[in-house]
Amino acid sequence: MVQTKNGYETSYEDRKQNRLQVVYRRQTQERQIFMQDLKEIRRQREIRLFKTMKNLIGPTWLQALSVLQRKALDTLEFSIYQDLLEGRPTRTASLMKELGLYPRPNTVELMTCVYLGRNDPKEMLAQLFLTTYGHPIEGKRCYYNLNARLVLSGILYLGLENLLELLRLRFLPDKEKKPPKPKPRPQPQPQLESPYLQEMTAVLYLRPKRKPFRPAPLPNLDDLNDPYEEEPPIAKPPPPPPPRPPPKKRLPRSYCDKIAGVMNIEPYSTITTTHTIKTVTQGNQLRKTKGSKMSIALKKSYGISVSRSSRGDKRRKRLTAPNTGISSTQYTINGVSKVHGKKVFVLGNVSTLPPEGDLINGGFRLINGEYINIHCGFRGRPPPQKPGICDCVTNWQDAVFKYVKENKCRCGHLYDYGNEGIFPPEEIPYFQKPSRFSPFQFNYHTIYNLDEKQLFVEKKFKKIWDTDSTLHIGDSAVIEKKDKKKKKFRRSSATCLGQNPKPEDYLKCALRQMRRLNIAAKLPDIHLVPELKEWMRWRIYGPFTKSVKKDMLIKSFMFWQIYCGLEKKGLGHVYPKQDPKYKGLTTWKNKQDLNDKFRKYTLKYKLDLYRTYAYSTNILWPTMFQAEFPNKKFREIFFSYLFSRIEDLQLMHPYNSREAAERANILSKKRYICKPDGAEEKD
């Protein structure tokens, strides 16, 4: 029996099997699509959370400093004083090494910065940044390398305490004079007939309740509400210009002379024969064989001059086409000739074109011994451009306004200021357009009213009444009907604080007034520093509650788990670059060369590791919420695993989970190895 895929001749078992395969294939495809969507959702979630972790850092230039780096910055002022006494920046250079700068500034630049910043260590670091990057610290950049981040973070650390003190003074609450409470005067008690009739008060002891913390009210901040404009980031320098194209290949001069027909015909002499004429070109003269040194020395000894002729030393000038300065003149050049040693053009004819257009030259013909130009017509020139519309509208000054009032405008704008006719009335609304609250309506009063003046006044009055402009409340009160649907004018677009200011808004407005008192206030986006934001938040809202602290603990744990998952995928792992120098067979002769190259290779790899670890440290540090709950011991422990200096770096990172897993896998493979027979040690 013939079995087909579908039909009556197929058995029940085959149809059941086909059905199961179709259902299985469909379910498998749906699961694959679901898993792909789930994978994409998780990837987007990881990207979003990673951006959240990066936003917790604060400004782009902020770098977390270890305890050793902070100690080095604390001794910077004394080191500057000692280096100025000695005249060489020995101690300051060692502090730059402790800070983690690589490559480090040279001695001349460092000594200049030390002298300019002798009064303030923050000024010294600011001068070092200006010398290295070519712009002051106020300039905002889209990207900062590690050296720039360390220098700017050092300036912030040195000026942070002073900034906090200035903020305390600025946001000090106003003193309120409370009126003194009147002292109660004891009233005389009436004398009772019996002491048993005296009222007795029973005292009940209650535990004192702790009042919730209420932060002091903010002072008057009207001076902070000035307009504020953020400076755009500094643009990257333009790339260097592309290299010049290679020079065109120049043909030999003899070839050019041959094409131009340049030749020298020598006169008859006894040396030359009558039946030969020698043609000598300039290229042939240059290719003459030079005499040997011995022959030149002999000629010098006999007083024979061996210098070349001045004619050969001159550089050949490039021929320029004849030009009379008349654009309507054309030449026909037949060739080049040499007259009295000077090369000139041989002109066939000269034709002058009429002034109204360019001649279309169709060539020339020789007719009866005369060359005749073939004239095919003239090229039409484009019509002259129309003069632009005058700018009488843009220059509304008093003199122009007076002139336009007294004289009718002739430029095409057709403005009329009462010279002719009456002022045209505005469009009168005879119909009311439908909206989501009312249907289309006819205004019967305006349809049957013939007095345009009355209709115009009613429309104007209704427009003023709807916009509340009769009260004259600021400039933003005059809002037309069509602008009602737009977003209302926010105060924050023109002022600093705005309507609902956040802690960073208060900082942004207050810190710009402290730039003369503290250099650290000049840093870009300093209002986003976590320590300053936390101080301002505490000043406005007070300390955290227990529920908020619990949420922060859960967030920190979640961020750490996310980072560990990203680390297993390769984040923070530096792969050693494969260098072809170390491949192939080598001998003992190459030992020193290979050692030197490998030393440079190791230093470069360590530098890449150091920068990667510094980047990962900077991302993980704000997830510990040390700005809200600072702890010096925790900072020491944190930076003992995640290195902050290139001197403390190890090629084997003990805190990287991926590298730790790789090492454990290698050790487990080497641990269980069965030795071959005969390899066991005999007792």
Automatic annotation (TrEMBL):
Question: Compositional bias (Pro residues) at which positions?
Answer: 234-245
Residue ranges annotated as compositionally biased, kind Acidic residues, are 223-232
Segments carrying the region annotation (Disordered) are 174-194, 214-253
InterPro entries found in the cross-reference section = DUF4771 (IPR031936)
DUF4771 domain ranges (all copies): 508-649
Name under which the protein is recorded? Jg7724 protein
Species per Swiss-Prot/TrEMBL record: Pararge aegeria aegeria
